[in-house]
Design goal:
Layout (H helix, E strand, L loop, with lengths): L5 E8 L2 E7 L5 E2 L2 H8 L9 E6 L6 E7 L4 E2 L3 H15 L4 E5 L2 E9 L2 E5 L25 E2 L7 E2 L2 E4 L3 E6 L9 H9 L9 E9 L2 E8 L3 E2 L4 H13 L6 E6 L2 E7 L6 E6 L1 E8 L5 E2 L2
Parallel strand pairs: 2-4, 5-7, 13-14, 15-17
Antiparallel strand pairs: 1-2, 1-20, 3-21, 4-5, 5-6, 7-8, 8-9, 9-19, 10-11, 12-13, 14-15, 15-16, 17-18, 18-19
């Protein structure tokens, strides 16, 4: 090991921002404390997630993801697009593969600075999400916030799209719900043994959803790609929309196509580069 500074790149997908460290040539070792320090917006670089790239025996790259609480998580759709765009420029390939804890992702350029990620097939069985108790129909489960005779939120849909998601359907503006208040409690609800991403979603047209997301381990974020995928799948399962929708998040729009031929979810959206820098020597342990 050495104490040389470690370079990073700051990127975002619709405002969902990441610190990206390339650990392929010089492997890096991260502790939870270090991940939190880097992600801290007051004293560190600041980000929703910290991304470390590693070599993969089965893909163009392995992508590891830490949320700003310092815990490693399975998937991040917006980060996948960012890393894919880096790989397109690096390799010149027309498609690249990314190895994640949530599965193997195939990514292709979509033109005009957009990237499409094949997020794979959703998992809708209660034990695969996972839930702590059995629900035969995960399109609606028994969970509510507020008085039992007049709940504020109730009967959410649940699904796993690389990580667990819980979607509450509302008829009015999603900004009218105090997700910053309900999100932490719902994320840690005993029903979700691996915690969950919490979304408030409104159907605003036959092919349009508007959502806000409390992201597991990150809090309110400008965008969450897997939440957009989860909401689109659940809307289609409930016949609220078709299988291809535009999903509007606070940071912008994603196009989600739940492909009928193989049930794979295709997510298309933009990528943004912010800046490059170096982490202080000794903050991240790096191989020689």
């Amino acid at each position: 090991m050495n104490d040389a500074p470690v370079s990073f790149r700051k990127m975002n997908g619709l405002g969902n921002d990441f610190v990206v460290i390339d650990g392929r040539a010089r492997p890096v070792v991260l502790s939870e404390e270090t991940a939190r320090a880097i992600a801290n917006r007051k004293t560190g670089v600041g980000c929703d997630q910290l991304i470390v790239l590693e070599k993969s025996p089965r893909a163009d790259v392995r992508m590891r993801i830490w949320n700003n609480e310092g815990f490693e998580v399975e998937s991040c759709g917006n980060a996948s697009r960012c890393i894919a765009d880096l790989l397109f420029a690096e390799t010149g390939k027309g498609h690249v593969t990314i190895d994640t804890l949530g599965g193997l992702l195939l990514c292709t350029p979509a033109g005009d600075g957009l990237v499409t990620v094949d997020m794979g097939a959703p998992r809708v069985g209660w034990q695969d999400i996972p839930l702590a108790e059995e629900f035969q129909d995960t399109r609606h489960i028994e969970l509510q916030i507020g008085p039992i005779d007049d709940p504020i939120l109730h009967s959410p849909s649940v699904v796993n799209v690389g990580n667990p998601h819980c979607i509450f359907w509302v008829d009015s503006d999603v900004n009218g719900y105090q997700l910053e208040r309900f999100g932490p409690m719902l994320e840690h609800h005993p029903l979700f043994p691996e915690r969950a991403n919490i979304t408030v979603a409104q159907v605003t047209g036959p092919d349009h959803l508007t959502i806000r997301v409390w992201e597991r381990g990150a809090g309110l974020t400008r965008a969450c790609g897997t939440a957009a995928c989860a909401a689109a799948v659940c809307a289609a399962r409930l016949r609220k929309t078709g299988r291809k929708v535009r999903v509007t998040l606070p940071g912008g729009d994603l196009v989600i196509d739940w492909r009928q031929s193989d049930d794979h979810i295709l997510m298309t959206g933009a990528v943004a580069y912010e800046f490059e820098g170096e982490l202080p020597a000794g903050l991240v342990a790096a191989g020689a």
